[in-house]
Amino acid sequence: MRHLKDFKFIEGVIRAGSIRKASEDMNITASALNRRINRFEDEFGYEIFERLPRGVRLNPAGELLLHHIRSNRSDFARLKSQVADLSGVRRGHVSVACSQALLPYFLPREISRYRGEHPGVTFSVNARDRVAAERELTEFASDIALVFEPLTMVDFEVVHASAQPIHIIMRADHPLADCEEVRLRDALRFPHIAPSEKFAVRVLLENATRTLTSADVNPLIESESFDFMRHYGQWEDLISFQFPIGLDLEPGAGLVSRPLAERDVAPGSLLLGQLRGRTLPVASARFMRELVVSLSALDN
């Protein structure tokens, strides 16, 4: 506990990359900050920073210390949450890393419902791609991840998996709008907009086209914003691709969505998970359980 202030200073230096820049960010003199770091290293018994000509960086001992700091902070947050529960006060903080598709509709609905029952709980919600979400779990920067197709599963403990077929979004008068489902080769014959290759939707489309001889993903516009792609059809007659959990097309928008045939394109796997082996704070664990219930209802 007595080193909590030191930990704050150490993390400030890590973020800034130099003691001088960190001192400016934290409104402390560089000499005072340097003395504080030196004193901590003396008590710790090891240096934690490499001193470079233009700054500092963590050495291996410092990397281990950083993991300890983040782990202890997580444990302390869980302890405070549990103590608050003992007193009947429902407090805590929930941090979520999620794919963009969850931001417009699903998570606002779920968080507002949860806070309606537990108004003392605060949230941080960050849009992250698959790689960044997994990294945030291992760094204790996020408690929960809700992402499509994580690239690795070493540290990702899956709590719930939900299948999401890819939909195409198009104008209501588009030639494909009357189809109950759309074949991939038919969709790709029309001008289209697509996400960049780091997103699961694009990966699944590219994988599917390997078995097709007459179709390629060849977007006229490529974007990292699904919100942008979802609405672009209002301005130009291009189709776009998205998972349905991120769709709630307004009647006045003049847009419709149809699923791609699953015999052409495999559904995406929306995975709800946490860091393997970690015990979540009470508020995060409760919210996770509610997400499982809501995702299960969508699956049925």
- Inertia-based shape: elongated
What can be said about the biggest beta sheet? 5 strands, mixed
**Could you say what the CATH topology of the largest domain is called?**
D-Maltodextrin-Binding Protein, domain 2
- Helix % is 40-55%
Q: Termini, distance in Å?
A: 48 Å
Number of domains: 3
CATH superfamily descriptor of the largest domain = Periplasmic binding protein-like II
Sequence of secondary-structure elements: HHHEEHEHEHEEEHEHEHEEEH
Low-confidence stretches: none
Query: What is the CATH-assigned architecture of the largest domain?
Result: 3-Layer(aba) Sandwich
Strand proportion = 15-25%
Describe the strand arrangement of the main beta sheet, using strand numbers. 4-3-5-12-6
What is the averaged pLDDT score?
84
**What is the quaternary state of this protein?**
single chain
Topology:
Layout: H1 4-16, H2 19-25, H3 30-44, E1 49-52, E2 55-58, H4 60-86, E3 91-98, H5 106-117, E4 120-127, H6 130-138, E5 144-148, E6 156-164, E7 167-171, H7 184-188, E8 193-195, H8 200-209, E9 221-223, H9 226-232, E10 240-242, E11 255-259, E12 268-275, H10 282-299
Short structural description:
With 300 residues, the chain is α/β, with parallel strands linked by helices. It has helices at residues 4-16, 19-25, 30-44, 60-86, 106-117, 130-138, 184-188, 200-209, 226-232, 282-299, and strands spanning 49-52, 55-58, 91-98, 120-127, 144-148, 156-164, 167-171, 193-195, 221-223, 240-242, 255-259, 268-275.
